[in-house]
Design a protein that fits this description.
The chain is mainly alpha-helical. It has one domain: MFS general substrate transporter like domains (Growth Hormone, Chain: A, Up-down Bundle), CATH 1.20.1250.20. Helices cover 82% and strands 0% of the residues. The chain has 18 helices and no strands. Helix 12 packs antiparallel against helix 13 and helix 12 runs parallel beside helix 17. The longest helix is centred in the last third of the chain and has 33 residues. It is globular, with a radius of gyration of 20 Å.
């Protein structure tokens, strides 16, 4: 564990800051849109663009990590993250918001986000510890929201949204040394992959796309992105419309981050003991039922924080489960790339959750239709995922008897 420790600490810090800062950008939406004269859907277009760029580039970033190494990829992504925040802080119209919060941060997340972080964390630990350790790194990745959301909201209320974004720039500087230490993973030798997957990226991709469970998992991942990005983007606006204290939004995002630590640790541990695909489906089902419960009645401070706690527990547990399952099936070498391929579906869902939610709100004046769509699709994805996994398990059991 000794040589792995600096790698795991570095990648955890990098992921924590990258995820925490981007998840808190929705805090600035009410003040930003009023100040520079853009609509809610204009702002959510930037967040949707961020997620789409991230998704499109993620498989390429995974392949680049194999070719050039993780350290240059993560350092470059960290610098790009800083550049995106600076452009956003200086924005005076939709173009600056889309370029900074959308294109730049989206491209950066492909190099510093969960797919690269999970691939980095999986390599220096033993197979027996892998699922649990991925849960630990995913848990650390949620701590950034505990820091960034309250700081961003406090600066936003006291000095304006630009001060809040500049505060994020200062926080994001710590991503650079974190990425440097995480880059030590390039020195760790790789074990051989199953089925000749060491040959090329094309061989790995071809095998994955012919593997039915991988296709099902990737398709269900759409719902994960749609639900989570809808919440991080639109929950602050929803609470403001309902007359809640603006600080409640930051508190809710912070609670999500805190309970995400527990959820990531639990699902990382559980993935080493039970069927990972069944656990993924259960997460989608429970999230959808929680969304239905919360939005069925006007919000209260206590109910909002309880909702945030449950959603936080279910938030990033998908990450370690999916990463560990891909590694189990396809090996370590192309894990980042194949995780990135599945992540394309996640980010298309994120685009729909952010931009679609904004469009429906602008058209209908409420979030009701968007919530109903998110709950319905989430229940469908969860049922299909669990049913398919149990069917595969029963067939495997019959084959061995």
């Amino acid at each position: 564990m000794g040589p792995a420790l600096p790698i795991l600490i570095g990648v955890s810090m990098m992921l924590s800051l990258a995820m925490g800062l981007r998840q808190s950008l929705g805090l600035f939406m009410p003040a930003l849109t009023q100040d520079i004269g853009i609509s809610v859907s204009d702002f959510t277009l930037a967040i949707a663009t961020q997620n789409l760029v991230w998704g499109v580039l993620q498989p390429l970033a995974g392949a680049w990590a194999v070719r050039w190494g993780f350290r240059p990829l993560m350092l470059g992504g960290s610098l790009l993250y800083l550049a995106g925040l600076v452009v956003l802080a200086a924005a005076h119209g939709e173009a600056g918001v889309v370029l900074g919060a959308g294109v730049a941060i989206g491209a950066s997340m492909a190099c510093t986000g969960p797919a690269i972080a999970m691939a980095t964390a999986a390599r220096p630990v033993s197979e027996a510890m892998r699922s649990a350790m991925l849960g630990v790194v995913s848990a650390a990745g949620s701590l950034g929201a505990l820091l960034s959301a309250p700081i961003g909201q406090a600066l936003n209320q006291a000095y304006g949204w630009r001060a809040g974004v500049w505060g994020f720039v200062v926080i994001a500087l710590a991503m650079l040394p974190a990425a440097w230490f995480a880059g030590r993973v390039d020195r760790v030798p790789l074990p051989p992959s199953p089925g000749g997957l060491d040959r090329s990226a094309g061989a790995a991709l071809g095998m994955a796309l012919k593997h039915v469970p991988f296709v099902v998992v990737a398709a269900a991942y759409f719902v994960c992105g749609m639900q989570l990005i809808f919440l991080t983007t639109h929950l602050p606006s929803y609470l403001q419309i309902c007359g809640m204290d603006p600080m409640l939004s930051a508190q809710a995002l912070g609670v999500i981050g805190g309970f995400n630590v527990l959820g990531s640790l639990f699902f990382g541990w559980a993935g080493g003991r039970w069927n990972k695909l069944v656990l993924l489906g259960l997460i989608y089902l429970l999230r959808s039922l929680t969304l239905w419960w919360y939005f069925a009645a006007p919000p209260t401070p206590g109910g909002t924080l309880a909702f945030a706690a449950v959603m936080g527990f279910l938030w990033l547990g998908v990450g370690p489960l999916l990463a560990a399952w891909i590694t189990d099936v396809f090996g370590l070498r192309w894990q980042a790339m194949l995780g990135g391929v599945a992540f394309v579906s996640h980010q298309i869902g994120s685009f729909v959750g952010a931009f679609g939610g904004g469009l429906l709100f602008d058209w209908l004046g409420s979030y009701t239709a968007a919530v109903h769509a998110g709950v319905s699709l989430g229940l469908a994805a969860g049922i299909v995922q669990v049913g398919f996994a149990l069917h595969r398990s029963s067939k495997a059991g019959l084959a061995t008897t």
